From TrEMBL:
Interacts with the iron-sulfur protein subunit within the SDH catalytic dimer. It comes from Ancylostoma ceylanicum. GO terms for cellular component: mitochondrial intermembrane space; mitochondrial matrix. Signal peptide: none annotated. This is Succinate dehydrogenase assembly factor 3. The keyword S-adenosyl-L-methionine does not apply.
Length: 140
């Protein structure tokens, strides 16, 4: 994304979540195909779920996804690729602050990523709305 587009996004803060969403999906192009599929599915699901979140939750949500975007951008840069590692471990303090639902979601993500590594199953969204949409589109 160009610096000019980034400045425009910052000039209109209400558009920043959309800019961030698009930027993350573009960064995912640099991931191996199975990781990209899993990442895209997860990002789309999370942004959809937080579309109508309270301002307090939205601020935390945007901050965390911005951190993810910056970290992934660094890891996919030429110097990051040389190190050969994508991702980072969660800090114990952050893990302790997670709600039960977040811990369950994290466990589901871990299980899915392990399946992906083994090539066991394709990644699908966990959002029930996606399942009903695919059923509706299949019956037309």
């Amino acid at each position: 994304m160009s610096a000019q587009k980034a400045v425009k996004a910052l000039a209109r803060p209400e558009r920043y979540p959309l800019y961030l969403y698009k930027r993350i999906l573009r960064l995912h192009y640099g991931l191996p195909p199975p990781a990209r599929l899993m990442g895209d599915t997860y990002v789309k699901d999370e942004f959809r779920r937080h579309k109508d979140a309270s301002p307090e939750h939205t601020a935390v949500f945007i901050n965390e996804w911005t951190n993810y975007c910056v970290t992934l951008s660094k890891q996919l840069s030429s110097s990051g690729i040389v190190k050969g590692f994508i991702g980072k471990d969660l800090e114990p303090e952050k893990l302790d602050s997670f709600a039960e639902e977040q811990l369950r979601q994290l466990l589901d993500l871990k299980i899915e990523s392990e399946r992906m590594k083994k090539g066991e199953v394709p990644v699908e969204s966990t959002d029930p709305a996606d399942a009903s949409n695919s059923k509706e589109s299949g019956s037309n």
